[in-house]
Amino acid sequence: MPGVPPARYAYLGPEGTFTEAALRTLPAASRADLQPYPTVGGALDAVRAGDADGALVPIENSVEGSVPVTLDELAIGEPVLITREVLLPVQFALLARSGMTLDQVKRVVTHPHAEAQCRGWLRRHLPDATIGRAASTAAAAVLVADAGASYDAAIAAPVAGERYRLTALARNIGDNPDAVTRFVLVSRPAAPSAPTGADKTSLVAFIRDDHPGALMEILDEFAVRGVNLARLESRPTGQAMGRYCFSIDAEGHIADARVGEALRGLRRVCADVRFLGSYPRADATPATVRPGTTDADFTDAERWLERLREGRL
Amino acid sequence: MPGVPPARYAYLGPEGTFTEAALRTLPAASRADLQPYPTVGGALDAVRAGDADGALVPIENSVEGSVPVTLDELAIGEPVLITREVLLPVQFALLARSGMTLDQVKRVVTHPHAEAQCRGWLRRHLPDATIGRAASTAAAAVLVADAGASYDAAIAAPVAGERYRLTALARNIGDNPDAVTRFVLVSRPAAPSAPTGADKTSLVAFIRDDHPGALMEILDEFAVRGVNLARLESRPTGQAMGRYCFSIDAEGHIADARVGEALRGLRRVCADVRFLGSYPRADATPATVRPGTTDADFTDAERWLERLREGRL
Amino acid sequence: MPGVPPARYAYLGPEGTFTEAALRTLPAASRADLQPYPTVGGALDAVRAGDADGALVPIENSVEGSVPVTLDELAIGEPVLITREVLLPVQFALLARSGMTLDQVKRVVTHPHAEAQCRGWLRRHLPDATIGRAASTAAAAVLVADAGASYDAAIAAPVAGERYRLTALARNIGDNPDAVTRFVLVSRPAAPSAPTGADKTSLVAFIRDDHPGALMEILDEFAVRGVNLARLESRPTGQAMGRYCFSIDAEGHIADARVGEALRGLRRVCADVRFLGSYPRADATPATVRPGTTDADFTDAERWLERLREGRL
Amino acid sequence: MPGVPPARYAYLGPEGTFTEAALRTLPAASRADLQPYPTVGGALDAVRAGDADGALVPIENSVEGSVPVTLDELAIGEPVLITREVLLPVQFALLARSGMTLDQVKRVVTHPHAEAQCRGWLRRHLPDATIGRAASTAAAAVLVADAGASYDAAIAAPVAGERYRLTALARNIGDNPDAVTRFVLVSRPAAPSAPTGADKTSLVAFIRDDHPGALMEILDEFAVRGVNLARLESRPTGQAMGRYCFSIDAEGHIADARVGEALRGLRRVCADVRFLGSYPRADATPATVRPGTTDADFTDAERWLERLREGRL
Questions:
Q1: How many CB atoms lie within 10 A of CB D150?
Q2: What is the CA radius of gyration of chain D?
Q3: I want to staple D90 with a disulfide (CB 3.0 to 4.6 A). Which of A13, A211, C56, D179 is the partner?
Q4: What is the dihedral of CA A104, A108, A114, A120, to 10 degrees?
Q5: Considering chain C, what is the average pLDDT of its residues?
Q6: What is the ipTM of this complex?
Q7: C271 Cβ under 8 Å from any chain D Cβ
Q8: Which CATH number fits domain D1-89+181-189: 1.10.3720.10, 3.40.190.10, 3.90.700.10, 3.40.50.10540?
Q9: Contact D113 A236 (CB under 8 A)
Q10: In this structure, which CATH number among 3.20.110.20, 3.20.20.20, 3.40.50.2000, 3.30.70.260 belongs to the domain D191-313?
Q11: What pTM was computed for the model?
């Protein structure tokens, strides 16, 4: 269709990162115009401004944890909608400056979770190396890339090697082949796609005041309607020490009656609730539906209540 | 209005009981036809059969506890609707057979709670008497009325003296002037009267199976919607030892959004829920309404959810 | 042993009731001196005064519910200890005055739960009879025994026929052969017998003030330690309408660590807790022990805490 | 005392950071030997190896949230003990490369929370500037320091200016003067210092398996003993997506009976619990102690249970 311009997707750059790789797994991206942005906020703002139709950003990593800046960027500013999630395997490489060989490596640096995940390989291949720890695997690569580095090699993603001009002395050195990074595809506000039976709903709940039990109240709004949580993380609101909001992934779709009632309950007990989207789970695991919480159960209860209110006992 | 037949009210007889006294406190009863029935079930069945427009039956007594047969009769059979509650002060008298005098009383019998409530009077006037205990104050009167009675006097309601031909040796001997009996006025199914802001909703919840935590689930359905309970009693269902239903008075009216959602929740988690009525509280105490649980809060949350589902974030 | 006087057991009389039958199922009662008392309180006071070594009283009935006077008598007065429970099958008979035949029976009276349990027999044998309802099956028998009775027959326990000189027109007419009455054997305070792994602990919890959530707090003290409840009933305290205590049977023995910690928790949150005894379950069902709640788990946690407090991390 | 070597403190370097400033607020540091380390792990390992007597590391920031690497480093490896916390005000500066003037600034970059906290200043002084966002305020400074930078200025801590050779165009530009960073002083395992009545207890709870309700169970162990939480954060365990541990600061001291019982409860329901220390709160706010949860209440309940177990009812 010659008259139709291709879709435009923003992603957390630079080119060649895992995020681009994840974006390329989406069929819709195959003929689209892909644009790297230096920050997560930049990619999201491209969507907000209409410069991109969607943005793919990392949100959670089974090694280093959530990506705080993504959680924060989604929680503030103009609303956007998560429409998909993408999972990409995590791969570790041992990266060093040019000229270094494996048998010369005495001091390795990495994030503690990455160290924990490569312990088997380290024991077999570098039993005598000391292991320093950095704030992230990328930060470890930076520490190694520096000419006067006090480390010989970093455990990091292969892409960090390309970025910081390091050489991979070994690849795929992780003990756990299931480690993954999770990305979300974000668009401008729209009605969510139809439920599939295996969906997630993401939101941020800002508690009304910092009373003991506020978190339990939030959990209870989900539990009473039989909605399981797939992820819950506290995040500071940036207002004062000890003021948190909660970033939540719940099982189910906003169109599900049980999820809808839980959201309404949250809305009533929270200072604010930001809905981030309902979308198919990448792992296609159907939501657990407890007895009494199907849409039919909700409809039956609604009609029963109407009858009672009209005096038809 | 010559052509209009007077209203007919059934009550737990016989004539002259507290129940009749309670019924006569109702303006509507002043020109009505009042009919005593030997049993609570009989009075309720008169309503069910159309032989009476309403029935007044005792449901709870601050001395001897709930009236189990009333709870059971309301819980089974054709549905009926509680439309009012009536509170009547409890008064205690010391009753004896004719000829007995106060200084001859050595052995008193009564229900343990009545003994507890007359302890001050007993200490002052009968410090040396032994106190036997009966299953009810009426049963105590029966034990005294018997010619070969092993008791000299009973503490019971004055009306029991009339009924069992006993003489009151002393009246108003209770230490607590606030003790009351609670009655409910029951009619055939109809739409409940409009909320007053100081209402109660009565119901019976039959748990789905006897799993640990079933009661907590029921309590949670109310708590999550900010609905306080004024009374909760377990009752056996008559099916097997350890199978209970819960007889509940909740604060608020079925027309209140928070009560309605709690009822719908109960309907979904329980095997059965029987709604018994929403009616003004006799003590006119307004319901406590927690922030986030007004009708306006529910309406706001409903509209918010609709907007989200339509993509208007 | 000629010099040892036989044990003396009190029971709720008169002779010939189900309670005596239940007492006779105990081996210890076979050579004991059994003494009927007219009231539950009288039987318990015989134990308190040292006039009896034990007292057997009914506490719960799968047809008519708990026996309130027993719950109340155990909850107040000098403390006593429940040392055993006894279950006895409930049997129903159709009782009439002498001379009545089955085909003459037009009006039957009984407790609503008993009616519910004999519905099959009634449909087959008395399809046209009207069914009145009484406050108890014994009260139904009384209503029939009266010469001017408005009922032809009562559904009640066979023993009620003996007591009120009624004839059994039919026996074993209940649809549910598993219906039982539960009795408890009560002695003076003593250390409970050793745990068997299939025990119950009975107690009464008096809530501190009538705040919403008080019952949930009580339930939570048990739930957090993995202690299931076998029975929970609210009882008025006799002080004012709406003031309750909770009569509770918990699974497990006071010597179990999890039950002990739950009791200590109750003691701290309640105005008062009365321990009524730990004793073997009549049905010998072992308590469910959730992972993390064995005595060994509690001991391990205690030692771990001690180590931490001493700085041995 | 010439013979006593000075204490040695490690801290997250390099020299001149906020962490050094925080360390210098401690009296004990005034005559000590202070040693910067490039990573949090390095500073903690210096303590573990005996190369330092204590290490000061940042743990939480009211702007950018918790310091994940510190949470992770404390949660794994050889146990260490938090003995103090230090709060230091957060200050923001507008940093630019040399030669830039305030009226030339068109593109600012910073962390979204920092942007939110400087919104008033930005509106007054740079109303037309575009605001890009970075993963941290330090990362924003890095983006600006780069010669080919696409940003003119960064909002960051003043210390970042020194580190990346940027000039402060404006200082103290935050709207909220209460913003703080929280640091903890960590030592080798030892018995915690005595309770002060205004203490915090830090720990990490690893849930046994990822069942719905695991977090609620953890919260309930604290709530039932009346222990409030000051901070709760989920952290991935690094094992698989969706496997979390919970980093928790509770009000109170491990020597408090209520905290001790809550910890024992956690130990029983969790796969593992790592105690990180009990120490005085920097803000000296006394713990809220709910009725029934004082040490005296626990002692009373313990003695009461002992009496019951011995038969002294």
A1: 12
A2: 23
A3: D179
A4: 50
A5: 89
A6: 0.88
A7: no
A8: 3.40.190.10
A9: yes
A10: 3.30.70.260
A11: 0.87
> How far apart are the C-alpha atoms of B155 and B163, rounded to whole Å?
14
Average pLDDT for C234-242 = 70
How close are the terminal C-alpha atoms of chain D, in Å? 61
Q: How do residues B102-158 score in pLDDT, each as one tens digit?
A: 999 999 998 777 887 898 899 899 999 988 877 678 878 888 987 777 899 999 988
Task: Reply yes or no on whether the pLDDT at B18 is more than 50.
Answer: yes
CA angle, D78 as apex, D76 and D83 as ends, to 5°? Answer: 95
Question: Collapsing DSSP states into helix, strand and coil, what is residue C32?
Answer: coil
Q: Nearest chain C Cα to D224, which residue?
A: C221
Instruction: Quote the tokens at residue A193.
Output: 């796609």
Q: Tell me the two tokens of residue D173.
A: 């530009």
CA angle at A67 for the pair A62 and A71, rounded to the nearest 5°: 125
How far is B21 from chain A, CA to nearest CA, in Å?
29
Q: How far is CA B175 from CA B60, B114, B270, D146, in A?
A: 20, 10, 42, 87
Q: How far apart, in whole angstroms, are the C-alpha atoms of residue D67 and residue D61?
A: 7
For residue B87, the distance in angstroms to the closest alpha carbon of chain C comes to 10
The topology (CATH level 3) of D93-171 is D-Maltodextrin-Binding Protein; domain 2 (3.40.190)
- Determine, for residues D213 and A223 on separate chains, whether the beta-carbon distance falls below 8 Å: yes
Give the residue among D139, D176, D155, D232 at the shortest CA–CA distance from A236: D232
Selected residue of A203, A302, A313 to mutate for chain B interface (largest B Cβ count, 10 A): A313
Angstrom distance (rounded) from CA C38 to CA C45: 12
Flag if A309 and B191 touch (Cβ within 8 Å). yes
Q: Residue B190: list chain A partners with CB under 8 A.
A: 311
For residues B93 and B156, is the Cβ–Cβ distance under 8 A?
yes
CA atoms within 13 A on the CB side of D81: 19
**CATH second-level architecture of B7-90+179-190?**
3-Layer(aba) Sandwich (3.40)
Note whether D309 contacts C192, CB cutoff 8 Å. Answer: yes
- The domain segmentation of chain C, as residue ranges, is 1-87+181-187, 93-171, 191-313
CB B100, CB B150: distance < 8 Å:
no
Domains A93-171 and A191-313 in one fold? no
Q: What is the mean pLDDT of residues D150-167?
A: 89
* Cross-strand bridge partners of residue A155: A94
DSSP labels, chain D:
-TTSPPPEEEEESSTTSHHHHHHHTSGGGTTSEEEEESSHHHHHHHHHTTS-SEEEEEEEETTTEE-HHHHHHHHSSS--EEEEEEEEE---EEEE-TT--GGG--EEEE-HHHHHHTHHHHHHH-TT-EEEE-SSHHHHHHHHHSTT-S-SEEEE-HHHHHHTT-EEEEE---S-TT-EEEEEEEESS-PPPPP-SSEEEEEEEEESS--TTHHHHHHHHHHHTTPPEEEEEEEE-SSSTT-EEEEEEEES-TTSHHHHHHHHHHHHHEEEEEEEEEEE-TT-PPPP--TT-SHHHHHHHHHHHHHHHTT--
| CATH 3.40.50.150 correct for A7-89+180-190 | no
pLDDT along chain A (313 residues), means of 10: 77 77 90 88 93 94 74 90 94 93 94 81 92 78 82 90 91 84 95 97 89 85 93 76 83 98 97 97 92 97 97 94
The answer to whether A283 contacts chain B (CB < 8 Å) is no
Task: Tell me the chain C residues in contact with residue D47 when contact means C-beta distances shorter than 8 Å.
Answer: none
| Cβ within 8 Å of residue B80, ≥6 positions away | A313, B44, B47, B48, B74, B186, B187, B188, B189, B276
Domain C1-87+181-187 fold is: D-Maltodextrin-Binding Protein; domain 2 (3.40.190)
